Amino acid sequence: MPAGIGVEGAGVIEALGPEATGFSVGDRVAYIGGPAGAYSELRNIPIARLVKLPDWITDEIAAATIFKGLTAEYLIHRCVPVQADQWVLFHAAAGGVGSLACQWLRATGARVIGTVGSEEKIEIARANGCEHVFLSHDPDLAQKVRDLSGGVHVVYDSIGADTFIASLDSLRPRGSMVSIGAASGPPPEVNVGELVRRGSLHLTRPSIAHYTADPLEYQEASNRLFDALKEGSVQPAKITEFTLSDAANAQRLIEARKTTGSVVLRPN
C-alpha cells in the first residue's frame, strides 16, 4: 500500500494527454488491462488500452462484460477459430467466460459439450447452449466425450490439473487443446511425444494480453463482441451493483460465492 486494484471498467474521457490521438474528450470508453486501478472514480490509463463504446450499450453492461466477453471472443474466433458443426468441449460452462463462450459457440453453429462442477449447474450450462453436459470430475469424461463426438475438434480447459489429461484424451487426431487456466492447480508437464501419440495434437496456452496488444485488433475484437450483444447471440450475465464505498463488502460476498453473474462498482 498504497496500491490500486481492478483491471476492467467503463467511463467517459474527461481529459487527454498532449500526444493522445484517436479519442476525444467526452468519448465513452471501456478498457481491460493496463495498470491496476479500476476501483476509482477518476484515473489515468494508457490510451492504447481504451476501446470506444457504441451509443446503445450502457456503462454497466460494458464494464460487466468487456473482460469476460473479449476472452470468449479471442478464444473461439482467433485463438482457434471454431466453425459450424465442429465439436467443442468447454470446461466450466456455467462460469463467467464459459457462459458467454458457449452461447457464442451455439450461435456459430458449433456443437458444444460442457462440463460443470456440480449437478446444480447442469441446467445453467444447457441454457448457455451446451448440447451435452458432464461433471468435470467424471472419471469417464474422455470416453463419454469421444462416444458422443468421435473426438472433439477443440477443448478449452480452464480447470488445469484435474482435467488436463482427460481433455487431451477427448480430442480427435489433429485437434486443438487450449489451456486457459489452472483453477485446480497447474497442468502436468507434457512430453511433446504425447501430442504425437494422441494424433498430432495442437497445444497452446494463450493470454488475452497478446490478443489485445494491437489497438486496431483490440477495437475490432470489441466491436465483434458488441455486435454479438446487440444481436442477442450473447446475453450478458445478471449484474449486481455496489458503490465504490461498499467495495470491501462486495469483495467479501464474491469470495464467499454469494453473488451470481457480474459485479459492478459504481461511483459513490
Automatic annotation (TrEMBL):
Signal peptide from the UniProt entry: none
Stretches that traverse the bilayer: none
SUPFAM superfamilies xref list: GroES-like (SSF50129), NAD(P)-binding Rossmann-fold domains (SSF51735)
InterPro entries registered for this protein in UniProt: ADH-like_C, ADH-like_N, ER, GroES-like_sf, NAD(P)-bd_dom_sf, QOR-like, Quin_OxRdtase/zeta-crystal_CS
Domain spans labelled Enoyl reductase (ER): 1-265
Pfam families associated with the record: ADH_N, ADH_zinc_N
Matches recorded under SMART domains: PKS_ER (SM00829)
GO cellular component: cytosol
Any one Gene Ontology molecular-function term assigned to this protein's record: mRNA 3'-UTR AU-rich region binding
Assigned keywords, A-Z: NADP, Oxidoreductase
CDD domains: QOR2
Designated name of the protein: Quinone oxidoreductase
Source organism: Halocynthiibacter styelae
